[in-house]
Amino acid sequence: MKKTVWIINHYANHMYFSKGGRHYSFAKYLKENGYEPIVFCSNAKHNEYGTYFRNDVLFTVKNADEIDVPFVFVKSRPYKGNGKQRVFNMIDFYHNVKKTIKIYKKNHGKPDVLYASSVHPLTLIAGIELAKSFGIKCICEVRDLWPESIVAYSNRWSKDDLLIKILYQGEKWIYKRSDHIIMTWPGGYNYIEEKGWNEIIPNSKVTHISNGVDLQEYELNKNKVIKDIDLDDSKHVKFIYTGSIRQINNLSLILNACTLLKKRGNNRAKILIYGEGEERNSLEERAKARKLDNIKFKGKVDKESIPSILQSADITLLHNTSTILDRFGQSQNKFFEYLAAGKPILMTYSVGNSINKKNHCGIELNEQTAESIADAIDMFCGIESEEYMKYSANSITTSKMFDYKRLTEKLIYVIEHV
User: Fold this and answer.
1) Which candidate, 99, 17, 6, places its Cα nearest to that of 51?
2) Which residues have a Cβ under 8 Å from the Cβ of 231 and sit 6 or more positions away?
3) Cα–Cα distance between 199 and 193 in angstroms, integer?
4) What is the CATH number of domain 4-212+403-417?
5) How many Cβ atoms are within 10 Å of 359's Cβ, its own excluded?
6) What is the pLDDT of residues 318-351, one digit of tens each?
7) Is the dihedral of CA 250, 255, 260, 266 positive or negative?
8) How far is CA 193 from CA 29, 121, 172, 297, in A?
């Protein structure tokens, strides 16, 4: 008999509405394979100060009809930004998801497996505690290294701060107490070795299951053509970026590269930025002040529109702030969408265990500077057709390795052998 799998992911709420994402896809293909998944997520909208459903009850159940999987929205206070209210929101979810799941167990019986996914560690702790009280196994999935990510992206915190040291010990506790660990980066176990925890956390306890793309959904959505004069432009070489426009994404570097291209007289390249964030207005104002007509900020689009947009790209642009975390590999969701688009990828930074480099899907830069980005854009503007087609073919082939239907097979293996 196939198992009942309860997935806990604080931030899976948007997946219910966008009908896609890691745990939506895993739930979909688990269901197709005879399993009974349920997704538990927060009722609070991420960074929008609001809730999806009434928040005066402990939880609200909604069925994702397309895949016939229940999503349970757990009461959590609304918040905006990364301050105290977001921390309280995490604490709310930690307490309330445990209450919710205990009620679910009472009404429906206990699951066979709990599958708890970070971003933050309280979700993993809740999963471990619940599994122990139920007498079942808990799979902990690490998609963000806390507190390593805090140290990497923050100017305020260092590894020597007392709070960070405490969080490292909490992280070690999670890895030790979980029944199995899933990491999304190919070099995830290298992190455990660097910490010196490999003696108590063996390699056999850790499985790499990357992020990916649901090719079935991608194929359906890429035919939903977006009417956009810039996407129809055949006079320029279109470099398309999709994602947030925040300080952490460092898009000012792309703006500086566009300034250099203008000075060099490159009139062929056009950068199209699809996304939203607090830095958009200031970047647009700077582009206007510099009289740059080779970069356009297109605004936010629905997730379902992304495949169609990427199909109109000549080159896809993978850009983010380069940090010390890159040495463990890459697993950004949009990277796999870029692969599925079948276009060469310009990656403005380098990573360990690089999928892009290993499979010759495009190029990645060893040095992330405006000059090196401008040089790469110049190169792609003059690329030979044969080389372009090789990159494109390799991207499509590689995307099939990271189809969520295939990745779910790896997850099922972990569930059956935990």
Assistant:
1) 17
2) 238, 272, 309, 312
3) 9
4) 3.40.50.2000
5) 16
6) 999 888 889 999 888 999 999 999 999 999 999 9
7) positive
8) 33, 20, 12, 42
Q: What SS3 state is found at 269? A: strand
Distance between start and end Cα atoms, the chain: 16
Q: Give me the sheet containing 345-347, strands edge to edge.
A: 295-299, 269-274, 237-242, 315-318, 345-347, 362-364
Pairing of strands 69-74, 59-64: antiparallel
Q: Which two tokens stand for residue 123?
A: 């979700």
Assign 218 to helix, strand or coil.
Answer: helix
Report d(CA 295, CA 284) in Å as an integer: 9
Q: What CATH number belongs to 216-401?
A: 3.40.50.2000
Q: What number of other Cβ atoms are within 10 A of residue 45's Cβ?
A: 16
φ, ψ at 267 (rounded to 5°): -105, 5
Q: At what angle do helices 333-341 and 385-401 cross, to 10 degrees?
A: 130
Tell me if domain 4-212+403-417 and domain 216-401 are identical in fold.
Answer: yes
E strands, 217-314, where?
A: 237-242, 269-274, 295-299
Average model confidence (pLDDT) across the chain? 95
Over the stretch 9-26, which tens digit does the pLDDT of each residue have?
999 999 999 999 999 999
Q: Which residue has 């090196």 as its token pair?
A: 372
Q: What would the two tokens of residue 17 be?
A: 């509405």
Alpha helices (H) along 19-136: 22-32, 84-108, 121-134
Q: What does the domain layout of the chain look like in residue ranges?
A: 4-212+403-417, 216-401
